[in-house]
Structures are given as structure tokens and as C-alpha cells.
Write a structure and sequence with these properties.
single chain, Aldehyde Dehydrogenase, Chain A, domain 1, Aldehyde Dehydrogenase, Chain A, domain 2, seven-stranded mixed beta sheet, six-stranded mixed beta sheet, 16 helices, 23 strands, binds nicotinamide-adenine-dinucleotide
Length: 498
């Protein structure tokens, strides 16, 4: 059985770990590897390697650091197929989607290549007579990242390229469900010329996470995952004096106005609800058509498209399927249980993905559609994280806005309309961090920052873009006055007498 190890101080280690977890191929339901689970001591040795590498890396000039990132970007591009296959074979998303994920991650590396510019700080001349003031954006030290299963390449790449380009060193703890792609992208950074110890990876679970959250050498923690763990990471890390950004779960609504192009809206919903089997924090899981006529027309268009939804293996010869399996058997059971709960609570099950005929042993479920879903039902209130779309009808624009704003999550949302005024009002009134206008999944580009509102985030700063640079640097502001000295002294031969 293949053993997936840790990567500490520039080499693989962890064969002697006593605790391991099984890694599966979700397309077949068979175990493909086992992953070492780091002990407290393993985690401390990764922190130690990062602490040791920090002074040298922080003293390396920003331009030299960013040259390593340029090489890293080229290597990631060269290895795209290999990395995409690792993602597809452990996560279950189809290859084209895996390639897309990596591309979005590489865009953050491109952004981080500009760190010499981004980290320049500020300068004010003559804040008082003969007094100048300037700020320096200095690295923090050892930073840690804890990442979820659903983007094993992109989410880690939201974090460590920016942290490292800014002069920090890093310990990454990826998801134990699909660790191979993450391990490969970490290893490639060394090939690009990153000194040993600057980027370390430990595989593990709560034991590793708790060590990162409490060790005094760790200065900052970035977390992406479910809301209960995000809240725990934020509270524990903050209690131990660390800077923490913790991104949590989501329930993203798409409001469809009566004047929207309904074919365009239905096409967009198919990709946004069922792409990656709904295992995206920016997936649309609630469609909010305004008016019963809009709802009925939209429902018909979705049903006809669901007839053509191709579900199957994540890696195939020829064109990809539209969506692959869920990540684990346990997660499949959870999604099936949510569908049962929706029926019990009185929602109308229009298409039941549990009826998918599949004998492969993989964790497959078909696209599911509910209508007449209402706040208070578990399938509305909770994040399912599967290919289950709920239609929650609203009578008016104001009712739609109120519904979205009342939800505990506020990650992403979209409005589909041809009316500029509705779109503008929506953007202004909605209590959500990322908003799309006729764009179903409004993930900001690398040079903007990504983050939700409400219980989709804990901590003040979003990830990547300007907030990412702020998160991984601390500002020092110097106010300086230079008394007149040598410039005004002409006689260099006598003793200076001030
Ligand atoms: P998860 O919360 O189960 O795991 C995330 C990380 O936390 C993993 O590395 C895991 O090992 C660790 N972890 C799990 N339980 C822990 C515990 N008790 N103590 C300490 N650490 C623990 O999330 P997941 O199932 O891997 O990912 C799916 C979730 O991530 C969804 O809720 C999704 O919305 C969310 N997500 C959010 C964003 C965002 O940007 N807001 C992006 C991607 C995923």
C-alpha cells in the first residue's frame, strides 16, 4: 500500500508514524493509499524547521524571493496534467475541473510574483518640519495553513505563495482525504529553488491542528473548511495570541428576476449547482426565482437539463463527464440523508439523485432538485455540500433579498436580471461577501481578495489579493528626524563640538 508522508525541511518523512488514515479512489470506492497522521512531535519538528529557515529567508531580497516564485509558476504549469490526475483520483472531480482548479491556484502564484511591489510600504515626506514618516511591511515568522478536501491544490495556493513571497516560512496541514496533489505542489516549490524548511507539509488531523494552534512559534494561521471547525480554529488560535483568518461553510443563493434570460440562468445554475458534485464553497445550492411564473419556467428548464447531466468516473478517455463522485462513502451517506430529510420536512422532490443506476462501487449520486423549499427546513438552513439544488420561491425582489440576508452564511451569491437598477440595489443591500451579476460563481481573481461575511468567515482579513498581503505582513511605522550634521560642517579638521 502506497504511504503518503510528510515533507519537512526539504525531504519526505513520516514512514514511522503509528497513526494512519485510508485514502480512497472515490470513482471506484477502493483504497488507493494510506496517509501518515502527524503526532504532536512530528508537527513540532515541522514548526522547528520553519522557525530555523525564517531568518535567512526573511533576509533574502524580495526580488530574489520572487524569482523563485516565477520558476515555481513555470513548474506548476509543466506538471499540470500530473497534478490534475492526482486531484481527480483522490477528490473525484473530473479532470477538466481539476485543471481549472490548478489554474486558479497558479494565478495566486502570479500575483505573489509581484511582492516586491506589493510590499513597498508607504512614505510621507515632511510630516513635520524636517520629519519624515514611513512604514515597512515585514514578515511575521512561521505561518500555518489548514485546508479542506474540496480544493487540494487551489486553497493551499491561496495561502503559502503570498506568505512565502513576503518573507515568511510556512507549515501546511492539508486535508487527510486527498493529500497527494497538495504534497506534489509543495515538493515542486523546492525544485523551483526554495530553500529547505521554508515550506513544510504535515499530514494529519486534530492532533496536528491543535499543535499548530497552540505552539508559540506559529505567528499566524489561515484556515479554510467547515464553519464549526473554522470557529474553533479562530477561537483557539486567537486565544494563543495568533493572527487568524478562518473561512467556513456556505449556502449560496442565486436570485432570478422575472426579466432574466432564463436559458442563460438555467445553464449557469447547472454548472454552479452540480459542477464538482456540488462540493464547492461557492456552489449555488439555492435558486430563488422571483414570482411563481419565473419559478415554473425555471424548474422546467432545469429538469430538461438534468436529463442530460452526465455523471461518471473522474478520469476517462475522451470528453469528461459533467460531474464525478462525492469524496467519500461517509459523505455520500450524509448527502443521501439530507435528501431523505427534505422529503420528510415537506419539500417537493422533483428529481431524486439517489435513483442513479451505478454499479461501480464509487460514491456516485445524481443531480437532485427540490422545489417548495423554505427557511427552517434542514435542506435550506444547512450546508449539504452535494449536488442538491433547492428552489426557494420569493414573491418579490424585497422578499428575495430578505431571505438571503437572513441566512447565517454569507459566502457568495448571484442575481440574474436584465435590469441595472435591480442589480445595483442587490449589490448594495445584500449581506454577502462575494456577489455576481449574471455571473453564477463570482470567485474574485487573485489580485482581489476572497472571503464571505457572517458565519462564512471568522477574522477580519480575506484571503489573497490586498488582504492576503496585509495578513502575512505586519506594519512598522517609523517617524524620523535627522538633526543637521556633517552636511553643514565644513571644517573637518577640528574636533566636532555640538
Ligand atoms: P473540514 O472542516 O472537515 O476540514 C477542514 C480541515 O480541518 C482539514 O484539514 C481537517 O483535517 C481539519 N479538521 C477537521 N476536523 C477537525 C477538528 N475537529 N479539529 C481540528 N481540525 C480539524 O472541511 P472539509 O470537509 O475538508 O471541507 C469542506 C468544507 O470547507 C465545507 O464546509 C466548505 O464550504 C468549506 N470550504 C469553504 C471555503 C471558503 O472559502 N469559505 C472554501 C473551500 C471549502
Amino acid at each position: 500500500m502506497k504511504r503518503i508522508q510528510h515533507y519537512i525541511d526539504g525531504r519526505m518523512t513520516g514512514l514511522d508514524s503509528t497513526r494512519t488514515a485510508a485514502v480512497f479512489n472515490p470513482s471506484t470506492g477502493t483504497q488507493s493509499a494510506e496517509v501518515s497522521l502527524a503526532s504532536k512531535a512530528d508537527t513540532e519538528s515541522a514548526i522547528q524547521a520553519a522557525a530555523k529557515a525564517f531568518p535567512g529567508w526573511a533576509a533574502t531580497s524580495p526580488l530574489k524571493r520572487s524569482r523563485v516564485l516565477f520558476k515555481y509558476k513555470a513548474l506548476l504549469e509543466e506538471h499540470t496534467d500530473e497534478i490534475a490526475r492526482l486531484i481527480a483520483s483522490e477528490h473525484g472531480k473530473v479532470l477538466s475541473d481539476a485543471r481549472g482548479e490548478l489554474t486558479r491556484g497558479i494565478e495566486v502564484v502570479e500575483f505573489a510574483c509581484g511582492m516586491p511591489h506589493l510590499q513597498k510600504g508607504e512614505h510621507s515626506l515632511n510630516v513635520g518640519t524636517g520629519v519624515d514618516s514611513f512604514s515597512m511591511m515585514q514578515p511575521l515568522g512561521v505561518c500555518a495553513g489548514i485546508t479542506p478536501f474540496n480544493f487540494p491544490a487551489m486553497v493551499p495556493l491561496w495561502m503559502f505563495p503570498i506568505a512565502i513571497a513576503a518573507g515568511n516560512t510556512f507549515v501546511l496541514k492539508p486535508s487527510e482525504k486527498d493529500p497527494s496533489a497538495t504534497l506534489r505542489i509543495v515538493e515542486l516549490f523546492t525544485e523551483a529553488g526554495l530553500p529547505d524548511g521554508v515550506l513544510n507539509l504535515i499530514n494529519g488531523d486534530k492532533e496536528a491542528v491543535d499543535t499548530l494552534l497552540t505552539d508559540p512559534r506559529v505567528q499566524a494561521v489561515s484556515f479554510v473548511g467547515s464553519t464549526p471547525i473554522a470557529e474553533y480554529v479562530y477561537a483557539t488560535g486567537s486565544q494563543h495570541g495568533k493572527r487568524v483568518q478562518a473561512l467556513g461553510g456556505a449556502k449560496n443563493h442565486m436570485v432570478i428576476m422575472p426579466d432574466a434570460d432564463l436559458d442563460q440562468a438555467a445553464d449557469a445554475l447547472m454548472g454552479a449547482a452540480y459542477g464538482s458534485a456540488g462540493e464547492r464553497c461557492m456552489a449555488i445550492s439555492v435558486a430563488v426565482p422571483v414570482g411563481d411564473e419565473t419559478a415554473s419556467l425555471l424548474r422546467e428548464k432545469l429538469l430538461s437539463r438534468l436529463d442530460g447531466l452526465r455523471v461518471g468516473q473522474s478520469i476517462v478517455e475522451g470528453p469528461d463527464h459533467d460531474m464525478g463522485p462525492l469524496v467519500t462513502g461517509q459523505h455520500l451517506d450524509k448527502v443521501r440523508a439530507y435528501i431523505a430529510a427534505g422529503v420528510e420536512e415537506g419539500a417537493e422532490l422533483v428529481r431524486d439523485g439517489r435513483e442513479l443506476d451505478d454499479q461501480s462501487g464509487g460514491y456516485f449520486i445524481g443531480g437532485t432538485l427540490f422545489d417548495q423549499v423554505k427557511p427552517g427546513m434542514r435542506i435550506y438552513d444547512e450546508e449539504i455540500f452535494g449536488p442538491v439544488l433547492a428552489i426557494a420561491r420569493a414573491a418579490s425582489f424585497d422578499e428575495a433579498v430578505a431571505m438571503v440576508n437572513a441566512h447565517e452564511f454569507g459566502n457568495g451569491t448571484a442575481i440574474f436580471t436584465r435590469d441595472g437598477d435591480s442589480a445595483r440595489q442587490y449589490c448594495e443591500q445584500i449581506q454577502v461577501g462575494m456577489v455576481g451579476v449574471n455571473v453564477p460563481i463570482p470567485v474574485p481573481m487573485a489580485f482581489h481578495s476572497f472571503g464571505g461575511w457572517k458565519r462564512s468567515i471568522f477574522g477580519a482579513l480575506h484571503v489573497h489579493g490586498p488582504d492576503g498581503v496585509r495578513f502575512y505582513t505586519r506594519m512598522k511605522t517609523v517617524t524620523a528626524r535627522w538633526p543637521s550634521g556633517l552636511r553643514e560642517r565644513t571644517n573637518h579638521y577640528s574636533m566636532p563640538t555640538l
